[in-house]
Amino acid sequence: MPKNSKVVKRELDDDVTESVKDLLSNEDSAEDAFKTSELIVDGQEEKDTDVEEGSEVEDERPAWNSKLQYILAQVGFSVGLGNVWRFPYLCQKNGGGAYLLPYLILLMVIGIPLFFLELSVGQRIRRGSIGVWNYISPKLGGIGFASCVVCYFVALYYNVIIGWSLFYFSQSFQQPLPWDQCPLVKNASHTFVEPECERSSATTYYWYREALNISSSISESGGLNWKMTICLLAAWVMVCLAMIKGIQSSGKIVYFSSLFPYVVLICFLIRAFLLNGSVDGIRHMFTPRLEIMLEPKVWREAATQVFFALGLGFGGVIAFSSYNKRDNNCHFDAVLVSFINFFTSVLATLVVFAVLGFKANVINEKCITQNSEMIMKFLKMGNISEDIIPHHINLSAITTEDYHLVYDIIQKVKEEEFSALHLNSCQIEEELNKAVQGTGLAFIAFTEAMTHFPASPFWSVMFFLMLVNLGLGSMFGTIEGIVTPIVDTFKVRKEILTVICCLLAFCIGLIFVQRSGNYFVTMFDDYSATLPLLIVVILENIAVCFVYGIDKFMEDLKDMLGFAPCRYYYYMWKYISPLMLLSLLIASIVNMGLSPPGYNAWIENKASEEFLSYPAWGMAVCISLVVLAILPVPVVFIIRRFNLVDDSSGNLASVTYKRGRVLKEPVNLEGDDTSLIHGKTSTDVPSPNFGKNIYRKQSGSPTLDTAPNGRYGIGYLMADIMPDMPESDL
């Protein structure tokens, strides 16, 4: 072979070697660039790129500053106004101390397993409710949207209650308290007590007339109540400022908003124990009535309370847990928060009935004094003989035991004429049996009790500041359940979305600060959340257990937690919880069907409440609330089942979630040689400097191969460098 031929061959060999090296180096650089590149949907950069554990790319999603901050946020969300004014009422109504047993059983069967499920999916997928359920099953993605709608409905009226609490808080810096006595009305000739107040009570009058200035029916709007409008605006400003930076701003506030209510409850409990009658209230509270436990209604109401106490289905639990590290022990968190919630309810019940016991004792003493004066009057008139009254009893300074003795004697002697005397037995149990809940407990019964406290303004300030903090803690989770999923899905700025959300909610919330606003609060409370949330949580359970796969989910939990969860949860999620939830849903529908839809209206002339049915338009609103809350579920399912929205259009239907990353669903895999990551153009993917792409996805390979360790494994072939060049020439 000629020498020149050898030189040429060697040069050709060197060129080939260098070309191969260049290709290999280009392949490495392209793969490195692929690994470190950020995923883009609809051409927007996803700054909070969510990557699998162990990736070199740093997760930029916000995170809690500490585990304590996270626990306090979850506790603040789950522990709300219902723990103070709903649980004590249910406990008294459904068997006293015996009610705690069905509540604990249902907490273990429904509460903790479902709370653990929501914490797990949020922490594993690291998205809000919309992203989580798109990840589990795109066709069930409407679950997340339904959660957002329900959250917004609840936020609309829940913040009104915070506004009411702010109003009472602002009025508590007076001595005496403004609701201590009935107001006097003056005319030209004389002064007299306000008739509406005289026929009811000072606290009842102040609530309905001074605070709400309530109309007589829901059809009489009466215009805006400007005092409550200002308070509602203040409440929304507080929520907006606290949530404008997400957990970075609200996370600092939870140290106060979540812990302060416990300080107040403990102070109230200590103070109440030092008052007369508090022990009577607690004894009445926890005296078990076992026969009531067998009634189905008790179990239904206990299940409903467990369900709402933990905030299941709202999306706030998922949103908060999505900011956790993947290896966080969310099982411990679920058990801890659930039992903190339970013991908070018990503590609140102790406080409420200790205070109500004191109030009942004060009212009972007044009753005995008034009836003793009536007995002395009957003795002077000769209607009752002095001989039947024991000589050791002094009617002008009579004790409770002596009064009951005299009452029984008169009742036996004057059997036929006794009813005409109009004497009252003055039993403290009768006063304690007057079950009150909700606003009736907080703004009427409890405020009346505090008027009898020494230094009553101080205790009133503390109580309503506690209600404000309880409400804010729940509002933080509710707003997070709205904002986080939308930010994750649509990539809008959190600050702008939060301001728009709060401003719009305030504008809509003006219907709740009309004179008839209290009736709309009742309507929303009865219809906007109960059924929709039950349906949402049932679908969540079905999606995880039967769509995603319970065995696969248990493996994910083992991989995430580092240990296998107790097998107990497997059976709860797959069998028991769905059946219990379905039973609860059916029972709620039946109960709603049997109960006539209506509200308790305050009738000014009678100075009492009267049950009224909703007008036709009111019924339409009630039905609309339920339908609108559930509508996203079938709408999203139909859109994605029948591909009604073009996947390539970049619309919502084309977005899916794979292993915590946002990807576009491919339209035509066979023809897509240029895009390695669906949703990115070929110009977005780093590539060697050749006129054509040198990488092609392996034919027949799936869109996304997931390796056992959870990372992506995608195969590539070098091709199309020079279409006509034989492989041997390369």
TrEMBL record:
<dbReference type="InterPro" id="IPR042934">
    <property type="entry name" value="B(0)AT2"/>
</dbReference>
<keyword id="KW-0472">Membrane</keyword>
<dbReference type="GO" id="GO:0015657">
    <property type="term" value="F:branched-chain amino acid:sodium symporter activity"/>
</dbReference>
<keyword id="KW-0769">Symport</keyword>
<dbReference type="GO" id="GO:0015820">
    <property type="term" value="P:L-leucine transport"/>
</dbReference>
<feature type="transmembrane region" description="Helical">
    <location>
        <begin position="224"/>
        <end position="244"/>
    </location>
</feature>
<feature type="binding site">
    <location>
        <position position="83"/>
    </location>
    <ligand>
        <name>Na(+)</name>
    </ligand>
</feature>
<dbReference type="GO" id="GO:0005298">
    <property type="term" value="F:proline:sodium symporter activity"/>
</dbReference>
<keyword id="KW-1133">Transmembrane helix</keyword>
<keyword id="KW-0479">Metal-binding</keyword>
<dbReference type="Pfam" id="PF00209">
    <property type="entry name" value="SNF"/>
</dbReference>
<dbReference type="GO" id="GO:0005886">
    <property type="term" value="C:plasma membrane"/>
</dbReference>
<feature type="transmembrane region" description="Helical">
    <location>
        <begin position="142"/>
        <end position="169"/>
    </location>
</feature>
<feature type="binding site">
    <location>
        <position position="79"/>
    </location>
    <ligand>
        <name>Na(+)</name>
    </ligand>
</feature>
<keyword id="KW-0597">Phosphoprotein</keyword>
<feature type="transmembrane region" description="Helical">
    <location>
        <begin position="495"/>
        <end position="513"/>
    </location>
</feature>
<feature type="transmembrane region" description="Helical">
    <location>
        <begin position="302"/>
        <end position="323"/>
    </location>
</feature>
<feature type="transmembrane region" description="Helical">
    <location>
        <begin position="571"/>
        <end position="594"/>
    </location>
</feature>
<dbReference type="InterPro" id="IPR000175">
    <property type="entry name" value="Na/ntran_symport"/>
</dbReference>
<keyword id="KW-0325">Glycoprotein</keyword>
<feature type="binding site">
    <location>
        <position position="76"/>
    </location>
    <ligand>
        <name>Na(+)</name>
    </ligand>
</feature>
<feature type="transmembrane region" description="Helical">
    <location>
        <begin position="100"/>
        <end position="121"/>
    </location>
</feature>
<feature type="transmembrane region" description="Helical">
    <location>
        <begin position="335"/>
        <end position="356"/>
    </location>
</feature>
<feature type="binding site">
    <location>
        <position position="474"/>
    </location>
    <ligand>
        <name>Na(+)</name>
    </ligand>
</feature>
<keyword id="KW-0915">Sodium</keyword>
<dbReference type="InterPro" id="IPR037272">
    <property type="entry name" value="SNS_sf"/>
</dbReference>
<feature type="transmembrane region" description="Helical">
    <location>
        <begin position="458"/>
        <end position="483"/>
    </location>
</feature>
<feature type="binding site">
    <location>
        <position position="341"/>
    </location>
    <ligand>
        <name>Na(+)</name>
    </ligand>
</feature>
<comment type="similarity">
    <text>Belongs to the sodium:neurotransmitter symporter (SNF) (TC 2.A.22) family. SLC6A15 subfamily.</text>
</comment>
<keyword id="KW-0406">Ion transport</keyword>
<keyword id="KW-0029">Amino-acid transport</keyword>
<feature type="transmembrane region" description="Helical">
    <location>
        <begin position="70"/>
        <end position="88"/>
    </location>
</feature>
<keyword id="KW-0813">Transport</keyword>
<keyword id="KW-0532">Neurotransmitter transport</keyword>
<dbReference type="GO" id="GO:0005295">
    <property type="term" value="F:neutral L-amino acid:sodium symporter activity"/>
</dbReference>
<feature type="transmembrane region" description="Helical">
    <location>
        <begin position="614"/>
        <end position="639"/>
    </location>
</feature>
<feature type="transmembrane region" description="Helical">
    <location>
        <begin position="253"/>
        <end position="274"/>
    </location>
</feature>
<feature type="binding site">
    <location>
        <position position="470"/>
    </location>
    <ligand>
        <name>Na(+)</name>
    </ligand>
</feature>
<protein>
    <recommendedName>
        <fullName>Transporter</fullName>
    </recommendedName>
</protein>
<keyword id="KW-0739">Sodium transport</keyword>
<keyword id="KW-0812">Transmembrane</keyword>
<dbReference type="GO" id="GO:0015824">
    <property type="term" value="P:proline transport"/>
</dbReference>
